[in-house]
Design a protein that fits this description.
Blueprint (H helix, E strand, L loop, with lengths): L12 H7 L7 H5 L15 H8 L10 H5 L3 E2 L4 E7 L10 E10 L8 E2 H4 L3 E4 L7 H7 L7 E6 L20 E12 H8 L2 H6 L2 H20 L3 H17 L5 H24 L3 H14 L6 H13 L3 H14 L4 H28 L11 H20 L5 E3 L6 H14 L2 E7 L2 E7 L1
Antiparallel strand pairs: 1-2, 2-6, 3-4, 3-5, 3-7, 6-7, 8-10, 9-10
Helix pairs in contact: 7-10, 9-10, 10-11, 11-12, 11-13, 12-13, 13-14, 14-15, 15-16, 16-17
Length: 435
C-alpha cells in the first residue's frame, strides 16, 4: 500500500462538496526525505517477462468462485490457494518487508479492480504491520520467494459486508494473483549491525544492499509517525557502513555520501522528537565527513536545533547560510521568521527584567531586599509566560548576574521544576531555563 502525503490542513467535507478544494502539500514533510536515496532497486524482471505480464491483466478464471475453490488448497476457512509457479527459500513471518506484484479480481469480472502491474509499481509492505488488507497479508505469509500463486480470499478479510461502492460490491470475495518478488528480514539486518565481528567481515557491496533495505524501512516508519523506530533503523544502517570493508576510493566516496544522508535523516528525526542536542550531535558527525557550509539541508536542521537550545545567534548564522544556498525555500524562510519573533520576544523580556529588577542606575550599588524581590517577581512572571508557551523549550536569561540573583534562579528552578544550565556565549556566562 502506498503511503499518503500529509496535508497542511484538514478538509471540510461540506465545502468540498459545494465549492471544491485546493490542496497544499506540507513541503517540509517531503523536503526532509525527498530525493535523499543513493541506492536504487534493480530491475525485477526481464523485458520478455514484462511483455508477458502485460498480457495477463485479465482474470485467470472465468467460472464461479465456488468451482475454483474446489481446485484449491485451504489455508484457512477464509483463504484458499493454488500455486502456479514454485518458489524457494523459507515461509514469511512478521517483521519481514516484502515486495510483491498482484492483480485482484471480483467474481465473473474480466478486468482487475486493483493491480500493481497496471500501476507499474510493486507493492512493498511489512508483514503483520497492518499496512495492507488482512487477507493479502495472510496470503503472502504462505509464499516463498519467486512463487506465483492464486488466492481466493473471503470478503471478511477484504472489504467486509459493505464493500467499497461502486467499485467493490458488498460481501465480495476476491481472487488475488500474487508474485512474491523479494523479502528482507528486518530483525536479521538490525542484528547484523549489533554484531561487530560479522559487520567487520562484510564487504561494502553486501553492506550497501543491507543499508538500502534498512533505509526504506526507516523512511516508511518516519512517514507513518514511528519516529523512534526510524531512528533505530538509521543508527543500525550507520553502524553497518562504519564497519564494512572498503576496497577503493570510489567505495569510500560513496560510503561518505551515504553516511551524510543517514546522519541528515537522523537530525530530521531528532528535531521531530524535540531532541535538539541529539540533532546537533548528528550534524557534528556530518562535519567529520564534509563541509556542511555547502549543504543547505544540514544547515537548516542544525539551525532548527539551535533555536530549541536557545542559541539564537548561531541559529541565525546557520539559517542565513542555508537561505543563501536555497533562496526560494519556504521552510527556511518560515524558520527564520519564527527565529526573529522569538529573538525579539526574549530580547524585550530581558530588557524588562533588567528595567524592573535593578533599574537603570549608572552606579553599581549593593542590592537591597526590595531590589531582589523585584528581580524575583520579574523572573517569576517571565517563567509563567515561558511555561505557558508550548512552542518554547528554552528560556535565555540576562547576563551579568550577581551571586544573589543566581541563587534566586536556582530557587526558582526548583520551584517550577525547571533545569538551570550555564554555558559560555562569546566568552560570557549565559544562564538558561529548560523545560
Amino acid at each position: 500500500m502506498d503511503n499518503g502525503i500529509k496535508l497542511k490542513q484538514a478538509l471540510d467535507v461540506s465545502k468540498v462538496l459545494s465549492e471544491g478544494a485546493e490542496f497544499h502539500v506540507d513541503k517540509e514533510f517531503l523536503g526532509d526525505y525527498y530525493g535523499e536515496e543513493l541506492f536504487f532497486d534493480g530491475d525485477y524482471s526481464s523485458a520478455d517477462e514484462d511483455e508477458e505480464s502485460s498480457t495477463q491483466q485479465t482474470t485467470p478464471w472465468s467460472g464461479s468462485f465456488d468451482e475454483l475453490r474446489k481446485k484449491m488448497q485451504p489455508i484457512s476457512q477464509l483463504i484458499y490457494k493454488r500455486i502456479t509457479k514454485e518458489g524457494s527459500g523459507k515461509c514469511q513471518s512478521n517483521n519481514i518487508r516484502v515486495t510483491i506484484e498482484y492483480n485482484a479480481f471480483q467474481e465473473h469480472e474480466l478486468r482487475p479492480f486493483d493491480s500493481t502491474k497496471l500501476r507499474k509499481v510493486p507493492c512493498r509492505f511489512i508483514l503483520g504491520a497492518g499496512d495492507v488488507l488482512p487477507g493479502l497479508d495472510q496470503a503472502v505469509q504462505t509464499m516463498l520467494v519467486g512463487e506465483e500463486a492464486e488466492f481466493l480470499i473471503s470478503y471478511k478479510l477484504l472489504y467486509g459486508e459493505v464493500g467499497c461502492p461502486p467499485r467493490i460490491k458488498p460481501k465480495a470475495d476476491g481472487l488475488f494473483v500474487i508474485k512474491l518478488i523479494s523479502f528482507v528480514d528486518l530483525e536479521a539486518n538490525v542484528a547484523c549491525a549489533s554484531e561487530p565481528d560479522h559487520a567487520e567481515r562484510q564487504s561494502y557491496a553486501t553492506a550497501k544492499e543491507t543499508v538500502a533495505e534498512i533505509r526504506k524501512v526507516a523512511k516508511e516508519s518516519f512517514q507513518r509517525g514511528m519516529i523512534t523506530n526510524a531512528i533505530e533503523k538509521y543508527k543500525a544502517a550507520v553502524n553497518i557502513l562504519h564497519k564494512c570493508q572498503l576496497k577503493n576510493d570510489a567505495e569510500q566516496k560513496e560510503q561518505k555520501e551515504t553516511l551524510t544522508a543517514l546522519y541528515t535523516s537522523l537530525a530530521v528525526c531528532y528535531n521531530r522528537k524535540l531532541q535538539p542536542k541529539a540533532a546537533c550531535n548528528a550534524v557534528n558527525e556530518i562535519r567529520r565527513l564534509c563541509d556542511i557550509n555547502h549543504n543547505a539541508k544540514v544547515l537548516y536542521q542544525e539551525g532548527k536545533a539551535l533555536i530549541e537550545l536557545g542559541d539564537y545567534d548561531r541559529a541565525q548564522v546557520r539559517l542565513k547560510r542555508a537561505e543563501q544556498l536555497m533562496p526560494g525555500d519556504e521552510n527556511i524562510k518560515a524558520t527564520l521568521k519564527a527565529l526573529h519573533i522569538k529573538y525579539e520576544k526574549y530580547h524585550q523580556e530581558e530588557k524588562s527584567i533588567w528595567t524592573r529588577a535593578i533599574g537603570m542606575a549608572a552606579k553599581k550599588q549593593e542590592q537591597s531586599v526590595d531590589e531582589l524581590k523585584s528581580f524575583t517577581d520579574a523572573i517569576r512572571g517571565t517563567i509563567n509566560m515561558f511555561i505557558g508557551d508550548a512552542s518554547c523549550t528554552t528560556l535565555p536569561l540576562p547576563g551579568h548576574l550577581s551571586e544573589q540573583e543566581i541563587r534566586i534562579l536556582h530557587e526558582l528552578a526548583d520551584e517550577f521544576n525547571l533545569k538551570l544550565t550555564a554555558h559560555l556565549n562569546h566568552n560570557k556566562k549565559q544562564y538558561t531555563f529548560t523545560k
